[in-house]
Amino acid sequence: MTHEHPLAIVIRTAGTNCDREMCRAFAMAGARVDLIHLDRLIRQPSLLDEADLIGFPGGFSYGDDVAAGRVKAVKCRVGLWPALRAAAERGACMMGACNGFQVMTQIGLLPGFEPGAWPDEPPEPVVALADNAQDRFVDRWTRIETDATSPCVWTAGLTGDTEVMMLPIAHGEGRFVSAHAGRIDDLRRTRRIAVTYASDDNPNGSEGDVAGLCDPSGRIIGLMPHPERYLEWSHHPFATRLSDAQRRGDPPGLRMFRNAVEHVRTGVGVK
Amino acid sequence: MHRVEVRPREGVGDPRGDAIRRDAAQLGIVASGVRSARIYLVRAAIDDAAVHVVRTSLLTDPVLEVSRLGADAPEADVRTIEVHPLPGVMDPAAQTVQTAVRELTGADDVEVSTGWRYDFTGVTDEQADLVARRLLANTVVEAIHRTPWLPDDFPHAARADQTVRHVQITTLDDAALEVLSREGHLFLSLDEMRAIREEYRTLGREPTDVELETLAQTWSEHCVHKTLKSTIRITPADDDVIDWSDRPGHEMQPDGSVVIHNLLKSTVAAATHELIAEGIDWTLSVFVDNAGIIRFDDEHAVCVKVETHNHPSAIEPYGGAATGVGGVIRDIIGTGLGARPIANTDVFCVAHPDIAQVPAGCLHPRRVLTRVVDGVRDYGNRMGIPTVNGAVSFDDRYVGNPLVFCGSVGVMPADMCHGDAQPGDRIIALGGRTGRDGIHGATFSSAELTDTHADEFSHAVQIGNAIEEKRVLDAIMRARDYVPSEAAGSGQQAAGKGTSSSECRMPNANCLYSAITDCGAGGFSSAVGEMGEKLGADVHLERAPLKYAGLRYDEIWISESQERMVLAVPPQNVAALQAICDEEHVELADLGHFGTDNAELILHFDGTEVGRLPMAFLHDGIPMPVREAEWGSSDGATERRSDEGRGSTSLRDTLLHTLAHPNVASKHWIVRQYDHEVQGNTIVKPLVGPGGVGPGDAAVIQPVPGSKQGLAIACGLQTPLGDPAMGGDPYVMTLAAVDECVRNLVCVGADPQRIAILDNFCWPSCAKPENLGSLVRASEGCYDAAKAYRTPFVSGKDSLNNQFRYVDPQTGEQITIEIPPTLLITGIGIVPDVSKVVTSDAKRAGNVLVHMQAQGTDLQDCVRMSRVVAELVARGIVHAAHDVSEGGVLVAAAEMLIGASETLGLTLAAIEHPFAESAGGYLLELSSSDVAGLQADGGTVVGTLTDAHQIVIEGYDDIPVSDLRAAYMGTLDW
């Protein structure tokens, strides 16, 4: 699928509070953006048929009551799975940041399935984001690394020096946990661990320093850090220290959105 | 009733249990293990299959958790503690689960309650009880159970008796009036009670209970600020540092005394109005609305408000602080025709956390601070508003009466700064339901705290529900920027620059309401009373949605249940507003209409008139007696100077000790728990430098995403300088606090000509003439400072009965602990270019540190210095800037190094008074080629940045920066 003017749909609910900056990120990257309430999508799932990109924003959906992202995920599993599955199968790009990642793992969108193998019923979650090891909400910038060999569309070519390659985190439940001992090796082997925290800068005790995962196609990503908070160089925590050389081009956060928008616009990398 | 118990799966860890184990160890209770479990009590007529679905798919994470129906039987050596909210206490998680269970199962009649279970091993029953009371539960709002709890049903209130009650007042003598005021929790003075008695004698009837309650709420200190607005007489000393001549609203008397007519108007507000008359044209709304508003750019305005929530936080710190945050956010939402909150601030004043004993009736300060931080975090983060600036100040006199200041900043279209209810507008309540919570909050916050308040006023305390407020915010923003075609619920945003998510409305947008305000202290009574002040209002109280049965009409009218807003809506717009509210899951209630004959407030319940008051008496009937203020004299100390460490090798110890002092030490433990970057517009974060540990002087945000212009937010707090117990003078304290706030803003790059400030007075009882005297002096300081810096006050708030009274159990003596007079100055300043902001962390070896110091006792010189420094910052030659405050120059320099990269050091020339604290001081990092000429402006080069990671001072041992950092970071590393 290619569209000259791709449409991004950002799914909001009560308590998704990073939706405006995610809309801004998609718009800056060249997409048309529609911010739609989950209830409206559940009433009218066909709205998602038009989406080239789907965003699950951060925040505290439904207050994160019960657990982070739980209620939003349950509502998506019950009311939106066929439309989400169809979007995955037709090659739409999806991103969940922070609460959005928590939601996507619980819906069963991540770690995802090979194209053509997405199940008819929402699958049992196999990875999770648990309470931070320190049992506390943490807001800070962390140094991140990307896997250059990953199929991930969003992080393609995303490199830079360690001062530039940072992303902000802000969460209380971001400790990556996989259900089975072999799972993380499997994810590593298939290059699905698209984003990791620098090993000396793991902020929450995540297994394998995992910060973000992609599906086998590389089009669907979920990550705990917030790329949508790094759209301008002035967002960087010590921006005035960066040299002109370091500040060349777009900051990594915006580059992720550009990658995906460009991907659905030109079909680069479409299988 | 079904009980679901959910606990962490073996092997994935139990961080909550581990944290409690650590905290218990601090109390001296060493448990060998603590396991936590979440408990859900679900009452619903659903079959076993549905219960299974709810338990496994909604309540349990298959990767992380295991769950069961019922309860694990406690093992033999295990002590079980369960904590559940008391009936009627807000339980936001329960509300969410309730809705989700309904949606999942289709059942209508569902009721849910949530709790926590903790299993302790290796402790005694007594120890488990102590941990429960000290760490796990506040019995004001929560019940402690020693076994797994499964009630047969939830308690339900009976319907209330709604018979109209009259209160006998016209025949009472003065003594009886005073008894009525106290026992009815009215907290009105004898003069005020007499005025009410006279009014009803004239009317020829007795007041109904709800009329009397309405008067008490409206006339409370909290709502009407009767002390600050009263006429005050004070006799200055001959050698006073204040020049009393030619002050607006001040009358010099032949006997040497000064009579001040309306203190607030003659000082704080007078400065603003004079500045406006002198040409400041960027204030858009001052003192009249829920927040003060200034112009940001051609299309946008920003507004700011800071509130206190001291007394609720003393009794239930979590709920008190959270609802403090929720309340000030609603102030922003309810300013003009509605602003979008974009930043929060928080300042706490508490007793030292290592205090051994606290008086009966007080919570330990460590618990107060921890829970206050939890409350601010949970509410602010859930609302999606970055908490970007704050402070913590420790003094043991805050032990029974901690101070919790919550601030919020909003952005709005510049042409929506004013709203007025129109006759015929519907009175529309939006948001949370009304319960018994928070009743008498306004009068309670205006009274002195005593050791029995926790019992007597537990109903004044409440827990917030941030998600309810977020839904209300979402609905109001849509109603404010309503576009008819948008009624379907979405608006597409074009591809491109991405600035369209700012406050720019569609050209055909049309606000659905003519006025808006929040329900704060006094609930509907204050909100409707204020909006209908000129028009009158006709209210039908039975139409307010209730949390539970059993509320009487007067309780509905004055309840302070959270997350409610009141809108004045033209009748033709109600349907459109209802449609938005339905989509956003916000409850809407039409309570009546504005506009009555003779501008009366008329209250009905189920067709019966229960109250009728003329608005004029309600708002203007309060008697304003002349109050006597006294002021001895201070010892004239305007600087605190500590010479400790001079000429001895203990300079190192003094420096480390000062950096580790809780007032100075890093607040990273607090700051990192707040999301200070949500909304994606935070440019200068609260902690700065490459390691994110340097103290930021002010935060800078971008109110309009993508715009070059920023907004700096900072505060000033100089309590010790005004402390009567230390010979301080509140006048001097106030000048220093404004100066500190201005310096913080200037350091990051704010334009000193575009700074607006707020005052928050927290004082002990001003019935005492000395305290009123110190309040007068602080107010005069506000006038002089605002005029000198040309920084208009745009809003403010006062809390004037901050003291704690208790009976010493040993001696039987009655003891009152007064807080030191505390004035928080909050400032916002326009930053012309966010790409040129400056932070406090030192940048480069070879650069020099320049101490720019005004004559600290000379107000005009401090103003001059702020302009000099701002000019240097604007020229782009300042690499780092930091204000010199607590701890003096050496501490400021150390903080600049602590925030720097882990290689930088500093060689210092001998500093005469390394720990002297004075107003008007800045430490700037400049290239050595840029320092020429600064001496004439009051600059001294004090040192050079080096590549050796230590501070080298001639005549003293070298001090490794890593030691400084450890001292600075360690104290509050909870």
Please give a quick description of this structure:
The complex is a heterodimer of chains A (271) and B (974). With 271 residues, chain A is an alpha/beta fold.
What does this structure look like?
The complex is a heterodimer of chains A (271) and B (974). Chain A has 271 residues and is an alpha/beta fold. Chain A has 7 helices and 11 strands. The mean pLDDT of chain A is 95. Chain B has 974 residues and is of the alpha+beta class. Chain B contains 27 helices and 42 strands. In chain B, the strands form 8 sheets. A 7-stranded mixed beta sheet of chain B has the order 19-21-16-22-20-23-24. A 7-stranded mixed beta sheet of chain B has the order 37-39-36-40-38-41-42. Classes of the chains: A alpha/beta (271), B alpha+beta (974). Strand 2 (32-37) of chain A pairs antiparallel with strand 18 (492-493) of chain B.
Tell me the structural class of chain B: alpha+beta
Distance between the termini of chain B: 40 Å
Give a count of the beta strands of chain B, DSSP E runs of length 2 or more.
42
Q: What global shape of chain A is seen? A: globular
